[in-house]
UniProtKB/TrEMBL annotation:
It is found in: Cytoplasm, Cytoskeleton; Nucleus. It comes from the Eukaryota. Keywords: Cytoplasm, Cytoskeleton, Nucleus. The keyword Membrane does not apply. The keyword Cytoplasm applies. GO terms for cellular component: cytoskeleton; nucleus. Belongs to the actin family. ARP6 subfamily. InterPro entries: Actin, ATPase_NBD. This is Actin-related protein 6.
Length: 401
């Protein structure tokens, strides 16, 4: 039977069989809406909700780690039902992702649930960064040379941003860096700014997340952007009005076209946005703006590089792979390259690689791994589980690394 590949992210789960062309992307949470109090929406069932205002999220992940197992099991049950991929896990092998530096108690709970509750025949767990690196090496349209075995994966996710270096195809654990800023922190910051300056949207995570995706961008030079922003003329170039959804005539918000007659929008709520558009994504480069005492992504990459063998530095800087949903802001790549260029030796070139689909890229790496010749050697079978137990399997995995 085909292997199930599950990139189990904190915001969305990407799942499918290794024989599938592409995965399903499913919200990894349970949602409740004011308009339909008697029903809970699981995963993609949210598309059936008529009014997603004040949507309440019940997340499986807390601060980036899988802690709410009841919620996770509900989502997984949905994923493997006919509404999802329509495939039972019983008797199958699953390849599943976990966060970097995952707690042992969480790893044990995952193993126990998969073997005891879902009756899998075998499992292999790894990280999204490992799968992204594997996909990068094996992707003929990426960089199939030996040099690609040396790469740095920058995963700009929902809860965290991780910088993970690989040398000769192996993760350098001493070089892994984590920044406690991701898509969730950006959405929360935008909620606070809009609520303080315009109207209270603290309960509108779903809507504000859409606003963030629609209007935010990364300034090439933040200080210059703030200075220029003081000019009335230049401020007009950034200022927009965002039409909020009313879930009757407008299901999803949108940017109001400048100069368009307002007759049709007189009854709509408009949110004026200006410097919020670039100050929110700036947190990826300056977490200290919200009191997080950590460096930004460019500094984290430079610091990660120092933990790697100097002989690999040239290849590592030429193969910086950018993945994760929060890497898709306009201007993100030029700004990252500009800031990183100033932090590394001038005689070394810097190249950023961003795949067309940074959200699902790790899943495609999982598909490649699950269909590779040596995948069976990596899998823990049910016999292994029954012979060695939870802690025995985890010790074996640590020794393999």
């Amino acid at each position: 039977m085909s292997v199930v590949v599950l990139d189990n992210g904190a915001y969305t789960a990407k799942v499918g069989l290794a024989t599938h062309d592409e995965p399903q992307v499913v919200p990894n949470c349970i949602m409740k809406a004011k308009s339909e109090r008697r029903r809970a929406f699981v995963g993609n069932q949210i598309k059936e909700c008529r009014d997603t205002s004040a949507l309440f999220y019940i997340l499986a992940f807390q601060r980036g780690y899988l802690l709410n197992w009841d919620t996770q099991k509900t989502v997984w049950d949905y994923i493997f039902s006919k509404e999802g991929i329509g495939c039972s896990l019983e008797g199958r092998t699953i390849l599943i992702t976990e966060p970097q530096m995952n707690f042992q108690s969480v790893q044990e709970a995952m193993l126990e649930m998969l073997f005891e509750e879902y009756r899998v025949a075998g499992m292999y767990k790894t990280t999204a960064a490992d799968l992204a690196a594997f996909n990068y090496v094996t992707d003929s349209e990426g960089c199939p040379s030996v040099e690609a075995l040396n790469c740095i994966v920058v995963d700009v996710g929902y809860s965290f941003t991780h910088v993970v270096p690989f040398v000769l195809g192996r993760r350098i654990q001493e070089g892994v860096r984590r920044i406690d800023v991701g898509g969730k922190a950006l959405t929360n910051q935008l909620k606070e700014l809009i609520s303080y300056r315009h109207l209270n949207v603290m309960d509108e995570s779903h809507v504000v997340n859409q606003i963030k995706e629609d209007v935010c961008f990364v300034a090439e030079d933040f200080k210059d952007a703030m200075r220029v922003h003081q000019s009335e003329e230049r401020r007009k170039q950034v200022a927009i009005e965002y039409v909020l959804p009313d879930f009757t005539t407008v299901k999803r918000g949108y940017i109001r076209v400048p100069g368009k007659p307002r007759e049709d929008e007189d009854q709509q709520q408009l949110v004026p946005l200006c410097n919020e558009r670039f100050t929110v994504p700036e947190l990826l480069f300056n977490p200290s703006d919200i009191g997080i005492k950590q460096v930004g992504i460019p500094e984290a990459i430079a610091d990660s590089l120092k933990a790697c063998p100097w002989q690999a530095h040239r290849d590592l800087l030429l193969n910086i792979l950018i993945v994760g949903g929060s890497s898709q802001f306009k201007g993100f790549l030029p700004r990252l390259k500009r800031d990183l260029r100033a932090l590394v030796p001038h005689d070394l070139e810097v190249a950023l690689i961003c795949p067309e689909d940074p959200v699902r890229y790790a899943w495609f790496g999982g598909r490649e791994l699950a269909t590779s010749a040596n995948f069976d050697d990596l899998v823990y079978t049910r016999d292994d589980y029954e012979e060695f137990g939870l802690q025995g399997l985890l010790q074996q995995q640590q020794q393999m690394r």
